[in-house]
Amino acid sequence: MNTRTDAEVILSKVPAVTLGFWIIKILATTLGETGGDTVTMTWLGETTAEANPNGYLIGTAIFFLLLLVLVAAQIVAKRFHPFLYWATIIASTTAGTTLADFCTRSLGIGYVGGSSILLSLVIASLGIWYVFERSISVDTVNTPRVEAFYWTTITFSQTLGTALGDWMAAGSSDPAATTGSLGLGYVGGAFVFAVALIICAALYFLTKVSRTVLFWIAFILTRPLGATVGDFLDKPLDHGGLALSRPVASAVLAAVIVLLILMIPQRPGSHPKARQAAA
Fold this sequence. Notes:
Elements: H1 4-9, E1 11-15, H2 19-43, H3 55-76, H4 82-106, H5 110-133, H6 144-169, H7 185-206, H8 211-234, H9 246-263, E2 268-270, H10 272-278
Antiparallel strand pairs: 1-2
């Protein structure tokens, strides 16, 4: 006979996908942009005349080391821990910011080239995950192997989001726009991604399109939305931004995220086997 305890043992180690999840996710991706830029552009001076020649690479190494430590802690954890989970998400999005900038700027791949390569990596990661597990649903994230697939896919998607957001917003004068850009500006880019997310929400509520597919599309789209909003906050006025202090903007965003984690109920997603056991 199955008991409630039996069902509770089989829980996803990631949060349930709710409106609160998406609000915190967008703020986390925005923090990833301002936080990554704080290290590489403000502290290491990548966009100044006194730039460290390896600023983006150094920033990427710092955030990827932090990400590896947090992912290891997340995998070792026996259950869902809200602050650990969101810290890992933020680490993945800051690492994605610096890695995308390193690829598109330092390596000269450009926004279109970087976005194309990263999109291929996201699709490949999801494909390999499906081959091994026969599912890419986040509700199944409760074993080390599935968690490895989950965090790999997330890191690729966060990096893709940065390159995609930059491609959408950057003008032709941007040094990394070597393979073209749309030049919509930060506000224009944010608007496009916000509309795309609204369309995803409409498809979720009005159609029977796969919830798993819609989740990953929305998850990927929140990253360029956060990237364009983050850039709008901290980029210079003559580049279409508000020129706010990157460290201050990052600190404020982090404080808001902590407050929301405390205020919004955080619960793990229900694993399919848990639902079967509870039935």
